[in-house]
Amino acid sequence: MNTVRLKYAMRAYARKHGLEVPKGYTPSSPVWGKGAKTLAWRITGHAGRHESTSAVVVADILFPKTLGQKIAEVALSQRGVHEDPYGSNDGVRVREYQKVTGAFKQAWCASFVSWCVRRAGYNGPLPSSPAWVPSWAPFRPVARRNLKPGDYVCLWHSGHIEVFISWKIRYVLANCVGGNTSPVGKNANGGMVASTTRYVTEMNAAGRVG
Asked: In 3D, which of 92, 102, 200 has the Cα closest to residue 143?
């Protein structure tokens, strides 16, 4: 988040909600100084966030992330997690994903997506068989052209599922993050969480929770 943009937004929020803007507050300055911290304290207190002066907390109040953005961030944070041992569909971290679906020691790409969705704060319904990729395909469909960060994509006739992050080439090639995959190749059982690139022609279905 650009500090100057955030500080202008803070001043606008303060004026809208009748909060006092500290004397000498200069939103055009990129420095997070005493005036910014004081105003941040007032804004977070007004929003019920326990009077934090953190720019990150204030930015979350003024520019709240969508559920999809949160899902994408969660997925990205897990890159590098892998089975232990490889080929086992098991491991301490992998079991955490599988707890959401109960599908222990089974292929876990859909369990990973389920975990990301829950970790991002979504408490609504999941597909009837959330560990089984084909149950995701008709769950909450969206057109592939309308994909947004945090959506899910089913690949290769619903043999695999990943989280959509962004377009690498718009409507042609997508950046994704998948569980039980690998960074290269058409790998639906690769044993790790990895960033991937997938052609839209590989996607037989796409959807969005929430």
From this structure: 200
pLDDT 10s per residue in the chain (210 long)?
Answer: 799 999 999 999 999 999 999 999 999 999 999 999 999 999 999 999 877 899 999 998 999 999 999 999 999 999 999 999 999 999 999 999 999 999 999 999 999 999 999 999 999 999 999 999 999 999 999 999 999 999 999 999 999 999 999 999 999 999 999 999 999 888 888 999 999 999 999 999 999 998
* Closest by CA position to 151, among listed 110, 202, 209: 209
Buried-state track 166-196, b at ≥16 Cβ within 10 A, e below 16 = eeeeeeeebbbbbbbbbeeeebbebbbbbbb
Based on the domain organization, do 32 and 85 belong to the same domain?
Answer: no
Domain range for 51 is 3-62
The domain total for the chain is: 2
Contacts of 91 (CB under 8 A, 6+ apart): 81, 82, 83, 84, 85
Structure token pair of residue 52: 């934090």
